[in-house]
Structures are given as structure tokens and as C-alpha cells.
UniProtKB/TrEMBL annotation:
<dbReference type="Pfam" id="PF05042">
    <property type="entry name" value="Caleosin"/>
</dbReference>
<comment type="similarity">
    <text>Belongs to the caleosin family.</text>
</comment>
<protein>
    <recommendedName>
        <fullName>Caleosin</fullName>
    </recommendedName>
</protein>
<dbReference type="GO" id="GO:0005509">
    <property type="term" value="F:calcium ion binding"/>
</dbReference>
<dbReference type="GO" id="GO:0004497">
    <property type="term" value="F:monooxygenase activity"/>
</dbReference>
<dbReference type="InterPro" id="IPR007736">
    <property type="entry name" value="Caleosin-related"/>
</dbReference>
Length: 209
């Protein structure tokens, strides 16, 4: 491996393609990984340069693999660490989704409510199991897979969105309370109130939702 003389601005991208990872997503501490650490020497412990803090240390490999977002001079996005209530903003789309006037039309809905509106076939704020089934079928999924997804989604997300203590026998999901259905396996693109949070580990991950 050739010596590394300078750390690029996109260090996270470089390391993500260089460091091998295990199936669980953690760094696989292999000879090649250790060799990379040795080549970087202590520079990694003072990244980003010129800042009064560091975001990675070589004694904790996971901090190198999972680099957080670091604002750069000239970034168009103002206050990147501040959650947005109604727009999913990034450096390329500082005002959120503007196609078709989406951001303006949906400005009184949280981003997670906007995200779930795809499943609300008639726009009345309630997602019935048949709404979920139709939405899954529109993706090209087969009837059995769509039915399974519908069962998993509505059975698990219906109760948290209810306004009272009694469960809904029809397993309806109420979009006005959908922030209550946030779960541990989500993408971390939303906070507990349904606002959009720029994902500090994978800033562009919202595009994959």
C-alpha cells in the first residue's frame, strides 16, 4: 500500500471504500485494515484538520468507518444539524423537494407525515390495510409479498398511532400520530416528533427511503 501523505476532504468516502467491513457492518479488524491505520499514523486522530475537535480515533475503528457529517466552508445548507419540521433539506436541495410545489403544498405536514402520505390512497389521513396493499402492489410486488408487508406494517404501526388506549380492530394507521410509530430499525432520518434530521452517518440516506 502506498503511503498516505494527505487526507482528502472526503475522508469518509475514501475510508468507506478502503476499509473492509464484517457482515454486521462493523469494521473487520484485519491486517489490511491495520495497515491502513499505520499508513495514516496519527493524522486520523486529528481529523478534521484545523478544528478544535476530532471525529475519529484509531483505537476505536468503528469511529473511522462510521464518519459523521462535517460541514464545509461554503455549504449552502444553513444549520445542517437542525431538524426540519416540513422539508427534507440537504446541500443540493436546501429548500427541500420543490418539484411540483411539493414543499409549499405540504408545508403544514411533518416530513414523516409526507413520507407516509404515499400509502394514504385517498388523502384523508388514515392508512387502511387495503391502502398499504395497493401501495405495495404499485411497486410491482406480488400479491403474497404485498399481503405479508401489509400485515407487518399495519399490525405493528396501527396501535402506536391511536389517540386512545383501545386498539383499532381494523388496524388503521393515523398519519397525524405516525411519529409515535418510530421504531429502532428505522433509517434515523426522522426524530421522535417526525422532523427530518440530516443523517450524520449517511447524509444522503433519505434518498433511499
Amino acid at each position: 500500500m502506498a503511503p498516505v501523505t494527505n487526507l482528502p476532504d472526503s475522508l469518509s468516502d475514501t475510508l468507506r471504500h478502503t476499509i473492509s467491513t464484517s457482515s454486521s457492518g462493523d469494521v473487520a479488524v484485519s491486517p489490511s485494515t491495520r495497515e491502513l491505520y499505520n499508513e495514516l499514523d496519527k493524522k486520523i486522530n486529528s481529523y478534521p484538520p484545523g478544528r478544535p475537535y476530532n471525529v475519529a480515533i484509531d483505537t476505536a475503528p468503528v469511529t473511522i468507518e462510521r464518519m459523521p457529517y462535517i460541514p464545509s466552508e461554503g455549504d449552502k445548507l444553513i444549520d445542517p444539524g437542525t431538524a426540519r419540521a416540513s422539508i427534507a433539506a440537504d446541500n443540493q436541495h436546501t429548500h427541500g423537494t420543490t418539484d411540483g410545489g411539493w414543499a409549499g403544498i405540504r408545508k403544514m405536514e411533518t416530513v414523516v407525515q409526507q413520507h407516509c402520505s404515499y400509502f394514504d390512497q385517498d388523502g384523508h389521513g388514515i392508512i387502511y390495510p387495503q391502502d398499504t396493499l395497493i401501495a405495495c402492489r404499485k411497486w410491482g410486488w406480488g400479491i403474497f409479498l404485498s399481503a405479508l408487508a401489509t400485515f407487518i406494517i399495519n399490525v405493528n404501526l396501527s396501535y402506536p398511532t391511536q389517540s386512545g388506549w383501545l386498539p383499532d380492530p381494523f388496524f388503521r394507521i393515523y398519519i397525524n400520530n405516525v411519529h409515535k410509530a418510530k421504531h429502532g430499525s428505522d433509517s434515523m432520518s426522522f426524530d421522535n416528533e417526525g422532523r427530518f434530521v440530516r443523517n450524520v452517518r449517511h447524509p444522503g440516506k433519505y434518498k433511499n427511503l
